[in-house]
């Protein structure tokens, strides 16, 4: 009996470093979604921070009405980014069609700005595009300092 147990231990598969194998495997779905939600939150925070800073700069450089026009567009951009993030999160969950409701936000902002006498189109549109500046800045930040994010 003793010889059988020694034969079994000698025929056993050698133990390998499991941490090396785990690093080659893709992350579990829950971990990947957690990482995505962190990215989503970081992008939203970055967009809101950019919007606040630019709002105060526009207020100082131009006037409060123009800064408020910018802020209306920036709020529309934040809503657009949030809707986009929700659509991306739902892509792998059986959603066959990507919604076009986000496009209505852009069209609605521009139509309201063009029809309402107190609003100006350019500050509203530039405010809407603030989310893109935040995306670019966040991408550059994580590319330069990948361990800081």
Largest sheet: none
Overall, the morphology is flat
Order of helices and strands: HHHHHHH
Spatial separation of the terminal alpha carbons: 58 Å
Tell me the strand percentage band.
Answer: under 5%
Oligomer: single chain
Low-confidence stretches: 5-10
Mean pLDDT figure: 81
Number of helical stretches of at least 4 residues = 7
Global Rg: 25 Å
Helix content: over 70%
Q: Which structural class do the helices and strands define? A: mainly alpha
Number of strands: 0
What brief labels describe this structure?
single chain; 149 residues; 0% strand; flat
Summarize the structure.
It contains 7 helices and no strands. The chain has 149 residues and is mainly alpha-helical. α3 (29-61) packs antiparallel against α4 and α4 packs parallel to α6.
Account of the protein in words:
The protein contains seven helices and no strands. It has 149 residues and is an all-alpha fold. The chain is flat and about 50 Å long.
